[in-house]
User: Fold this.
Amino acid sequence: MNRPLKICDLMLRDGHQSLLATRMRTDDMLPIAERIERVGYWAVEMWGGATFDSAMRFLDENPWDRIRRLKSVMPQTPFMMLLRGQNVVGYHHYPDDLLERFVVHAHSNGIDVFRIFDALNDVRNMRRAMEVVHREGGHVQASICYTTGPPYSIDYFVDLASQLAQMGAHSICIKDMAGLLTPYAAYELVLRLKETIDLPIHLHSHSTSGMASAAHLKAVEAGVDIVDTAISALSLTTSHPPTESLVAMLRGRERDTGLDLRLLAEISSYFGRVRRKYASFESGLFGVDVRVLQYQIPGGMLSNLVSQLREQGAEDKYEDVLREVPQVRADLGYPPLVTPSSQIVGTQATLNVLLGERYQVIPEEVRQYVRGYYGRPPAPIDPEVQRKAIGDEEPIDCRPADLIEPMMESAHREVAALLGDPAPREEDVISYALFPQVAGPFLERRARGSDGKEPLVAAIARLLVERAEEQAVRSEKEDGGAPSPWRTGSRPGRARWTGLIAGAGG
Assistant:
């Protein structure tokens, strides 16, 4: 009982993102929120990642409302969000002014812990977010994206965590987004981190490979301070180890969590009923898939990949896409597969398979990655792939955000014109700046008084967005790739199938 293990539950964010394509509505969270409040979690992850754009894109909800509505019922439980560094909650880099206002607004609305990561483990892309969260009084949880491959070793991750500690992190998260962390690697990594860094260590691991619960136990033996779990009804497969199981394993031991299993069982029972409402979004993936050790595809991406291929009538190509992913990842310098690098690699792998020729079509996101606009790849990019993507152009070597023009002022003018309101709410301006093609129609519907709840209007708006996105894809193919949006400061359109798997993998 000397040092209880702290638990962060992911039921309200990564649990349903990994299993149900991020479709759970706030209305299905609120009835159980009071009981979640009583548990005594270290924190509950309930925002960020894919939940932001999915709220507007699929649920017709204002994502900011979710924080406020849940916080009104759960005032004592710290709320955690997943922040993609300079990508904020989007799929490419944004300017510092937008990042800053997003963090300020999120914290003022009720986000306490900001889990900050960069898809390439490029600390330059995390620095500004960490500085702003620190300034605003939030908890800076800096993440190392765990993966395997030629560039990676225990020494690599310890060095990365040491850099983040020096940059002002309050805690360090080992973010094992694909479930690649073996129990003994978890033990060694946590032990080395505890010996090297005087900060709490937090472990996040998906159950895809079947190793996460064992990795949790070995990490506990090594002294990990906090672990992520998901309430059992939203756990396992591509999600996370079940909360109740870990609580039971440690009962009566030195690291006993002290959590009430009966209360947890009530919460799980509730979500078991709710999950049935979202059965159409289930991935169809059941049980352990050790192939993830080869493919390294994160949990959220797997469920969304199946959904996207199904929509395109290409579900039979699933295995082929899985086999192509590690080839593309190697070509692109072995990036960790987490948003947005998972989408970049997954999109290119899907195109390579569906078109029957590798790199016949290279999406603009992949070209931008090769140009260096997502950061510095962990290993060199294949020279032939680089030539196909950008010819003789030299990639940049600075922090990508240094080249992006400020955005908030222009976004404010556009939202004011869109709504006919000279003083729009800042949160609406932020939403629009991040996702103009999604937030624009959403804000217009709300301004007309539908509040996003008029099914016909919503369906028509989504159809128009999809058609605009498909036209953007055709234009990119015809033009051979649009000019760099990072050089011009403009916002690229999100292509429906080159933006593959919106919100997958973190």
Residues 452-462, 475-504 have pLDDT under 50 and may be disordered.
